[in-house]
Amino acid sequence: MTAVRRLDLLDPAEVSALGGIEIVARGVVEGFLAGLHRSPFRGFSVEFTEHRPYQPGDEPRYLDWKILARADRLFIKQYEEETNLRAMVLVDASRSMAWRGAADRLTKRAYADRLAAALGLVLLRQRDATGLITFDDVVRQVVPARVKSGQWARIVRALIDTPDGGGTAAEAALRQLTGLLARRGLVVLVSDLLFDRDLVLTALRYLRHRGHQVSVMHVLDPAELELGGPPEVRYRDPESDASVVVRPRELARAYAETVQHEIGAWRTACRRLGVVYHPVRTDLPFGLALRLLA
Amino acid sequence: MTFLHPLALLGLAAAAIPLLLHLFQRRTPPEAEFPAVRYLAEAERRTARRLRLRHRLLLLLRTVLIAALVVAAARPLVPARGGAAHAPTALAIILDNSPSAGATGGGRLALDRLRVTAHASLAVAGAGDRLFLMLADGVARGGTRAELLAVMDSVRPAAVRLDLVDAVSRAARLVGAEPLAAREVHVLSDLQVSALGDGHAVRPADVAVLVLAPTDPVANRGVAGAEVRDGAVAVTLGGTAGAAAGAVALVVGGREVARALAAPGEQVSLPLPPLSPGWRTAEVRLAPDELRADDARPVAWRVAPPARAVATAEAGPFVAAALDVLRDGGRITAGGDVRIGAAPAPGAVVLPPADDALLGATNRALLAAGAGWRFGPPGTPGPLADSAGLGLAGVPVRRRHALLGTGGEVLATVNGEPWLVRAADLIVLASRLDTAWTALPATPAFVPFVDRLVNGAARGERPVRSREGIPGVTFETRGADTIGATVSGLDPRESDLTPAGPDTVRRALGAAPLTDARFAATRFGGGRRGDLSTLLLVVALLIGGLEMVVAWRTR
Fold first, then answer.
1. Mean pLDDT over all residues of chain A?
2. Do A71 and A162 lie in a common domain?
């Protein structure tokens, strides 16, 4: 018997080698959904559709107790979710996202694109209206949240059409984003968060104030968590051209502490705002990253 | 502080290597993109002070580590009371192996005690020291410790006397010329009074003289002198004052022929038995005592019939009177084998003619006889110098002719010019034997001189000579004939083993004698230093460990 390999649990770089965003996203979603017993994202209401005989493994809460009482037979009630969830995925396309710490890994942007596409597909299959916004120093692509057919293709196209490293994430783009999200819904921000924290938190606070359910996927390359490199190196910020000469071996411990401190600060700040925060390494399988949002 | 290897301090320049590497090895580092520079800057801001401190600490530790190793290699020495190390020292050891060092005291050879102390001095010497060893022969031997130890081990009591005052003066000058931090002279001797004399050693102020104290005095007797005189051997005894009298025996041909009892300072006469003509030897022996080397002394003499001598009228009244005395004493007989004042011919003793007008004829006769000498113009007056043992030394000469010529043998001189010459079987005198020419006829030495002249010199014989050396007799020959003998023996002063007192030693050598323990504690005292190299190596080890810890924590 041949073992079935679920793409959602494989190394992201290996999975990405199979094809473009659509292929990868579909494969990831298929595997991801196959591993679930129920819908990962519940809407505001569900609608009953039909009965079916109970099978071992079904959850008892879905048993139709009235039929059981009348006919002494086990039936399961099946529902169809309503398409009243509006989800918007925000993808950071700034220059710092187009970086990877090793040649055999995805750039943060590539990882974010595939994660966003997979997330969009999952949501659309649940008939949730799903949209996409890409941004750097300005908003680059906007795909309004829809549930109609071809929506996922438009999302994928928008991701592809957004160039790498167009600039740095700036206050203007975040203000514009909040303006585009007029109706309340689910907002998922996929970014490396390498910009002013107060600015981002202001935007997130505004979104929460507007009633949005907000999740932040903090994309990190493993090399950003553990400092390495030659004995002495000048590291240059691709966005600001600021540079610093360091000896990685000397600074590794202090750097790791600083990064963990930053992650902790983001987590604390998001918790205060009621924002779900997840640090995501670019070597984390997509399925596990999606499960963080479930 | 001084250093055993000061040149090693040049390595201190290496202490600058860490700083130079820090300054000149700052290369342009490779550049790379890194988005999280803000985290780096924050991490660096948090650790900059600590890292800077560690870097400076590392630089300091490495510099101090190198400096400590270099200084340790230079062997630093600091003044200290204990320890074996000392500053580079020029050391001269005077090991007195003169004959008296062969005396035994307490069952131990005096030289052995001195040798042990000398060994100890050399054992403490270091590679930076300059070493000399002076023995009784007065020769200063320079060399390494191993070389001098080898020499020292082979040293035996010698046959020559050592003048300690002169030896210390020369050794002090020798070490004083060495450009080292300290200079010492170790005097290892039995410190006989006779070895010090009345003089005092001259030494530079910075030369320390260490004198080993002598042991308790040992009584000794020795044969100080022996010579054949009037058919007997006159023996003079030497030794330590107060030593008991002992038997003195005369041995001829392995047989004891005479015996007497004598104490140091006394003289005895041991009669010789009748012997056939020729050169003879005998030995004067004492009963064995603490110093065996001076218990025997050889004698040599020639047994010959009295010369047949006559004086002409030209010789003058003094010579005639002397010959009468000798004839009466049986030292000569009548005959013409030796003719004093005669014309030049074999066996003649030629004097200047009383009339200067005859001087030319006499010179022609000398030339005809093949003497090779002639009378010249009048020479300057002066005292006689005797090189042949004729007893003439110091006798004034008022008038003389210069003797001109070559060849033969000069037996006496005046003012360095020949006065008595033997050549071609005849004797030529530069002065007449008259009180108008020389005071010799008026001195008691005149008759013995005439005796030796006719019985010895005129026959071509030389008087028996004596010299310092290993006891023995050496004969001098000419062709098949034996014409002289040299008797070797120890210097009679060696028999007196009385050691000098502390005051005498201090006066003569400029230092008080030291006991063995005090000597050991004082040697290299001028340059004794504690060696800091071990301590520095330990410090360097600790610094190295600390450097590793700091470097590991920095990384």
1. 83
2. no
**Same-domain check for residues A157 and A223:** yes
Q: Which residues are within 8 A (CB) of B480 and not within 5 positions of it... i.e. 6 or more apart?
A: none
Same domain, A122 and A66: no
Pair B284, B222: CB distance under 8 Å:
no
**Same domain? A254 vs A116:** yes
Nearest CA in chain A to B52: A250
Beta-carbon separation of B33 and A235 below 8 A: yes
- The structure tokens listed for B112 are 């052995």
Check whether residue A25 and residue A104 sit in a common domain.
Answer: yes
Write the CATH number for A28. Answer: 3.40.50.410
Distant-in-sequence, close-in-space partners of B92: CB < 8 Å, separation ≥ 6: B131, B132, B133, B134, B140, B171, B172, B174, B175, B184, B185, B186
For residue range A12-47, list pLDDT tens digits in order. 877 777 777 777 777 777 777 765 545 444 433 456
Q: Are residues A161 and A248 both part of a single domain?
A: yes
Contact A229 B32 (CB under 8 A): yes
Secondary structure (3-state) at A31:
helix
Looking at the structure, tell me whether residues A162 and A239 fall in a common domain: yes
Distance from CA of B548 to the nearest CA of A (A): 14
Q: Is the pLDDT of residue B66 over 70?
A: yes
Tell how far CA B425 is from the center of its chain. 40
pLDDT confidence of residue B329: 87
Where do we find the tokens 């999952």? A122
Q: Select the residue of B29, B46, B51 nearest A234 (Cβ to Cβ).
A: B29
Q: Do B29 and A239 touch (CB under 8 A)?
A: no
Report phi then psi at B209, rounded to 5.
-110, 120
Question: Which is it for the CA torsion B241, B247, B252, B258, positive or negative?
Answer: positive
**Alpha carbon separation from B150 to A124, B97, B144, B249, B260 (Å, rounded):** 108, 15, 10, 40, 45
| Count, residues in chain B | 555
Q: What is the pLDDT of residues B438-471, one digit of tens each?
A: 999 999 999 999 988 888 877 777 778 888 888 8
| Residue A53 domain boundaries | 48-81
Tell me whether 0.85 is exceeded by the ipTM: no
What is the pTM assigned to this prediction? 0.49
Total structural domains within chain A: 2
* SS3 of residue B131 by DSSP: strand
**Angle at alpha carbon of residue B124, lines to B118 and B130, rounded to 5°:** 80
Percent of chain B with pLDDT over 70: 97
Contact call for residues A115 and A290 (beta carbons, < 8 A): yes
